[in-house]
Specification:
The complex is a heterodimer of chains A (about 400) and B (about 300).
Chain A (H helix, E strand, L loop, with lengths): L4 H18 L10 E6 L8 E7 L5 E6 L5 E6 L5 E6 H5 L4 E10 L2 E7 L4 E8 L2 E11 L3 E4 L5 E10 L4 E11 L2 E11 L5 H9 L8 E6 L4 E10 L2 E7 L9 E6 L5 E10 L2 E8 L2 E9 L5 E3 L6 E2 L10 E7 L2 E9 L5 E7 L5 E7 L5 E8 L5 E9 L4 E9 L10
Parallel strand pairs in A: 17-21
Antiparallel strand pairs in A: 1-29, 2-3, 3-4, 4-5, 6-7, 7-8, 8-9, 10-11, 11-12, 12-13, 14-15, 15-16, 16-17, 18-19, 19-20, 20-22, 23-24, 24-25, 25-26, 27-28, 28-29
Chain B lengths: L1 H17 L11 H4 L3 E17 L6 E3 L11 E3 L4 E12 L4 E5 L2 E16 L7 E24 L20 E27 L6 E11 L7 E15 L2 E12 L13 H7 L6 E15 L12
Antiparallel strand pairs in B: 1-4, 1-12, 3-6, 4-5, 4-6, 5-7, 6-7, 7-8, 8-9, 8-10, 10-11, 11-12
Classes of the chains: A mainly beta (about 400), B mainly beta (about 300).
Protein name (chain A): DUF4374 domain-containing protein
Chain lengths: ~400, ~300
């Protein structure tokens, strides 16, 4: 059959139309998924703590149950659970209160928890076993993060009993995975006996304070460390010099408003530049490019901060600097009042706002952690509540690069 | 189960078609029997749909209890009726073969359900069960092309050749097969949530709620498939009425992998994403056809 050229065009057009809507660019299951990890037991709430991608593109999720016992969920690249590991059965000892973050140091994955003596313990997640190292000097660990090189930064708290007086002090330690002796240790006097009660209620889960640690510097060494903790009657961010000389340890601080206001989250962008989130009671203020003179003692709220009324009053704020493609971004993750995960993206060099994105609907989703994945997508760890919002569970969102477009300029 | 039902219906229909013509002799004059004709008409009917999952996907991942939640959707196959309407263009060749093009608006419904349960391990009487029922409504513009064979019948079934429609007979059974391309016009689902809350040991029903969501983005725009069916036509005056039953089977997966998780209402609120699936249908149609060629005398020879 010979068709006239007009009909040939129409025929080809029809064929093209048909083939287009029958086939699409298939998305591989590991590119994008949503998972909610459920247990059908009333008494097994799982609260996510942190997530890290492994070298084989799977994920390790640190979670804790109702009794604050660490659980380690290992998934493959599609988010399917491969194993659930309990520190109790693999180490034969009881550990509690795992604290973020999961740290990849020289290819091994570590996190900090505490033993029954309230001492910090470094746990190493290895295939088939969980290694432990007790940091007996670090009492009541409150926050931990990876420092430069193989350093681990831990904020703690202790009441030192002297001859007649009790000294309440926040502590900060720079540790390493292969030694129980601190590289640097700092004692920061709270000057306030009330902080004992505050730390107790924090460890009991009755109160929440934004304890965190961090550093200014490159990948191998720090020019300053910082810790957000109780110091000098306030919740303050204290800048510390890398030294063990007690007279020159404290460089400066950002002073909070007693215990009702202060830094919620902070990320060093180099020098005196920080991306900050400040919380004062129920109000949140973000500044993606905040110049804080680290050698001075300043109040924490400044005029450059923008109030984010949509952030839920119990939200965590996670700030990370990431590279997506060629772009160097600062991303804030939080929970909004609609109980969704909300991500805000900023240019890291100018601090200008790029875009935002929400995840979740109908059920509550609370941002816990996020990471850029090997395939330039993003994995987002969240807490959700199932069964008419009754039981807390771990939720995972994986987005591919295309789906991140609202956050990219 | 549905296969048995389908086989039974098909068998009954074949019997129905053939019973009046048993023992009838061969027709005498083939030229009266077989002449060409163009028909145009309307069709309408009802269909039943089955969704056939291939690769399963789920958001809920159970770490305890019944762990295999990936196969948790229970599909209700051929469970509810819906309607289809269209137009018919048919060419009857003089050799018993006919070609028919029938653009049709197809409304399909299918459903699946799943259940989540939780139990208090310190008091197993305390349970909580949530049921989710998903009813889907898909509307397609379907473009099927049929090739049909009409069985020859005995002379007693042939009307006089004076006047009327060429090749006119009273009763014409036929078999047909073909392919279709269909394009999605609309798709939505209604999710009904119900459950039982035994948390205190006393049973309380959870308030039943119903929500509807558009899911067109989660479904591929196009679908292709094959059709096989049987039918019979009956001529009343110049009008031809036919009844037929068709089985249709989709060939391509119609769930979009790109947008599988992008409906935040269904995915994040109800932990629901589509499996990769194809659709199968059994449909019944009544056709009303009007001839385009009339002949006024016996010597007229149609194409």
């Amino acid at each position: 059959m010979i068709l006239s050229s007009k009909y040939q065009y129409i025929f080809i057009l029809i064929l093209l139309t048909f083939s287009c809507d029958l086939k699409e660019d298939e998305l591989a299951p590991e590119e994008s998924f949503i998972k909610v990890y459920d247990v059908n037991n009333f008494n097994l709430d799982l609260e996510p703590v942190d997530i890290i991608q492994t070298s084989d593109s799977g994920y390790v999720i640190l979670a804790k149950d109702k009794d604050d016992i660490p659980n380690i969920l290992e998934t493959n690249g599609q988010g399917e659970i491969q194993s659930i590991r309990s520190t109790a059965s693999e180490t034969g000892s009881q550990y509690f209160r795992p604290i973020g973050e999961l740290m990849n140091i020289a290819g091994s994955i570590y996190f900090i928890a505490m033993n029954i003596n309230l001492e910090a313990v470094l746990l190493e997640i290895e295939p088939g076993r969980i290694g432990t190292r007790v940091y007996s000097q670090v009492y009541q660990p409150l926050a931990a993060s990876k420092g430069p090189g193989n350093e681990i930064l831990i904020a703690g708290y202790s009441s030192a009993q002297g001859d007649e007086i009790v000294t309440e002090q926040s502590t900060f330690y720079v540790m390493t995975p292969n030694s129980s002796t601190p590289k640097y240790s700092y004692n920061l006097r709270t000057e306030d006996s009330f902080t004992d009660d505050l730390v107790n209620s924090y460890l009991n889960g009755e109160a929440n304070f934004p304890f965190f640690t961090g550093y200014i510097g490159g990948e191998s060494s720090a020019s300053h460390y910082y810790v957000n903790t109780f110091y000098n009657f306030n919740l303050s961010t204290v800048f510390l010099n890398p030294t063990n000389d007690p007279d020159s340890q404290i460089e400066g601080s950002v002073i909070g408003d007693n215990y009702a206001g202060g830094m919620k989250s902070m990320l060093s962008l180099g020098g005196n530049d920080f991306a900050t989130a400040y919380q004062h009671t129920n109000d949140y203020y973000f500044n993606p490019l905040n110049n804080i003179p680290v050698g001075e003692h300043n109040s924490s709220l400044d005029s450059g901060e923008v109030k984010f009324s949509e952030i839920d009053n119990l939200s965590e704020v996670i700030i990370k600097r990431v590279n997506i493609g060629e772009q160097d971004l600062v991303i804030y993750a939080a929970q909004n009042r609609r109980k969704q995960v909300v991500l805000y993206s900023y240019d890291s060099s100018t601090g200008s706002f790029i875009g935002k994105m929400t995840l979740g609907n109908n059920s509550p989703y609370e941002a816990i952690d996020f990471e850029i994945t090997n395939d330039e997508g993003m994995i987002i760890l969240a807490k959700t509540y199932v069964a008419d919002a009754r039981f807390g569970r771990v939720a995972l969102f994986k987005l591919n690069n295309d789906q991140l477009s609202p956050l990219i300029r | 189960m549905e296969m048995t039902r389908l086989t039974f219906v098909t068998a009954m229909f074949i019997l129905l078609c053939y019973s009046p013509i048993h023992g009838q002799g061969k027709y005498k004059n083939r030229s009266q029997q077989r002449q060409s004709q163009f028909w145009i008409g309307l069709k309408g009917g009802a269909n039943l749909t089955k969704a056939n999952p291939e690769t399963r996907y789920s958001i809920f991942d159970r770490l305890s209890g019944e762990t295999d939640q990936s196969a948790m959707k229970n599909y209700d196959n051929y469970g509810s009726l819906n309607a289809n309407f269209g137009v018919v263009f048919t060419y009857d060749s003089p050799f018993g073969l006919a070609v028919s093009f029938q653009p049709t608006v197809q409304n399909y419904t299918f459903s699946y359900g799943y259940e989540f349960d939780w139990v208090d391990d310190t008091n197993t009487g305390n349970t909580m069960i949530l049921n989710y029922q998903h009813d889907h409504f898909f509307r397609y513009m379907e473009l099927p092309l049929f090739l049909r064979y009409q069985f020859p019948l005995g002379s007693s079934n042939v009307k006089g050749s004076t006047g009327g429609v060429a090749g006119k007979r009273e009763f014409i059974p036929y078999i047909q097969g073909g392919f279709y391309y269909s394009r999605l016009i609309d798709a939505f689902k209604t999710i009904t949530t119900s459950g039982t809350d035994n948390v205190t040991g006393n049973q309380a029903n959870i308030q039943t709620s119903e929500e509807s969501f558009g899911v067109k983005n989660q479904i591929m725009d196009g679908s292709i498939g094959w059709i096989a069916g049987i039918g019979a036509a009956y001529d009343i005056g110049n009008i031809r009425v036919s009844a037929e039953i068709n089985y249709k089977s989709g060939i391509n997966n119609i769930a979009s992998s790109q947008n599988r998780y992008s409906n935040s209402n269904t995915a994040m609120g109800y932990y629901d994403v589509f499996d990769d699936f194809t659709l199968q249908h059994v449909e019944f149609n009544l056709n009303l056809l009007f001839p385009l060629k009339f002949i006024t005398n016996d010597s007229f020879n149609a194409l």
